[in-house]
Amino acid sequence: MHAWISPDAAGVDTLRWEPRPLPLPAAGEVRVRIHAASLNFPDLLIVQGKYQMRPPLPFVPGAEFAGVVEAVGEGVRHLQPGSRVAGFTGTGGFATHACVSAALLAPLPDAFDLEAAAAFICTYATSQHALLDRAQLQPGETVLVLGAAGGVGTAAIQLAKAAGATVIAAASSTEKSQRCRAIGADHVIDLSTQDLRNTLKELTGGQGPNVIYDPVGGELSEAAFRSIAWRGRHLVVGFAQGQIPALPLNLCLLKGASLIGVFWGEFAKREPQRNAAMLGELVRLHLAGRIAPVIDQRFAMRDLPAAFARMQSRQVTGKVLLINEP
């Protein structure tokens, strides 16, 4: 097997594609032959040593992947060799094979394409947990999605539409805005040519959005929060812009609004039964054709640095995939 090794968490430039012995699964583990993995923003932060979770060195990065079980460790009952699975494991995915806890893997029906599965769990689970669990989104409400062309943004557009909401997508370019409209956004705000607050006022008749889905942070967060509707909910999903905003809390009082933190990974650990039910619902929505990952580009697994460069270019729409050659 081969794997990408981060020896020092000092950045993409120190990653190495190296041969490794094929591992044997321990009790409770399975070995997966990885078909595809996807990039998520935390993958970049982890290899840069900037994420809240810092794995012991050296480590194999790659949080999200899909593939086929090759070998099963003692005590595993729900998976067997040949099972098709998707996993979100934090690390280990940027490789040809991985031994991981069977509890972290979701069995896939035969109709679920492995490439789609590799780009599915993180973004859709984050967005479903945010919109339906934390914000309690209701049919007929209006959702503003910031960073709408990214992985979690494109998932949020689709899930909000599936829940019966009106979706306003805000993106950084005309091309990205057009892509958001193509996947279901009712309205788009091209931030390269339009002012966020003024356009929101026009689109909502001065009422503002009921729910703000915010994986961006920075200056956009305050501008959006100042436009929020009465009893609105601002979902703090992440800080892709790089800056953690200092929002004026008097706006919570004036608007009767809520700031709501979203940490799907911790939710999955603390409430595994609810998380499993949510994942089952997401699979159902996908098989029904109501949600589907937006794939930006595909790279060979050995071309991980080029995939990271694509992510850092800020031109990505949806998800970047890494594919292992047969």
Layout: helices, strands, pairs:
Elements: E1 2-5, E2 16-19, E3 29-38, H1 41-47, E4 64-72, E5 84-88, E6 97-101, E7 105-107, H2 114-118, H3 121-134, E8 142-145, H4 151-162, E9 166-171, H5 174-182, E10 187-190, H6 196-203, E11 211-214, H7 219-225, E12 233-236, H8 250-255, E13 258-261, H9 264-270, H10 272-287, E14 295-300, H11 304-312, E15 319-323
Parallel strand pairs: 8-9, 8-11, 9-10, 11-12, 12-13, 14-15
Antiparallel strand pairs: 1-2, 3-4, 3-6, 3-15, 4-5, 5-7
Helix pairs in contact: 3-4, 3-10, 9-10
Organism: Roseateles subflavus
InterPro entries: ADH-like_C, ADH-like_N, ER, GroES-like_sf, NAD(P)-bd_dom_sf, Quin_OxRdtase/zeta-crystal_CS, Zn-ADH-like_protein
Domain Enoyl reductase (ER): 11-322
CATH-defined fold name of the largest domain: Quinone Oxidoreductase, Chain A, domain 1
Summarize the main sheet. Answer: 7 strands, mixed
User: Superfamily at the CATH H level of the largest domain?
Assistant: Medium-chain alcohol dehydrogenases, catalytic domain
H/I helix tally: 11
Low-confidence stretches: none
The succession of helices and strands, N to C, reads: EEEHEEEEHHEHEHEHEHEHEHHEHE
Number of strands: 15
Rg measurement, Å: 20 Å
Report on this model:
One of its GO terms (molecular function) is oxidoreductase activity. There is one protein chain. By secondary structure, this protein is of the alpha/beta class. The chain folds into two domains: 2-120 and 293-323, Quinone Oxidoreductase, Chain A, domain 1 (Alpha-Beta Complex), CATH 3.90.180.10; 123-263, Rossmann fold (3-Layer(aba) Sandwich). The chain is 31% helix and 24% strand. It has eleven helices and 15 strands. It has helices spanning 41-47, 114-118, 121-134, 151-162, 174-182, 196-203, 219-225, 250-255, 264-270, 272-287, 304-312; strands spanning 2-5, 16-19, 29-38, 64-72, 84-88, 97-101, 105-107, 142-145, 166-171, 187-190, 211-214, 233-236, 258-261, 295-300, 319-323. Strands 3, 4, 5, 6, 7, 14 and 15 form a seven-stranded mixed sheet that branches. Helix 3 (121-134) packs across helix 4 (151-162). 44% of the residues are buried.
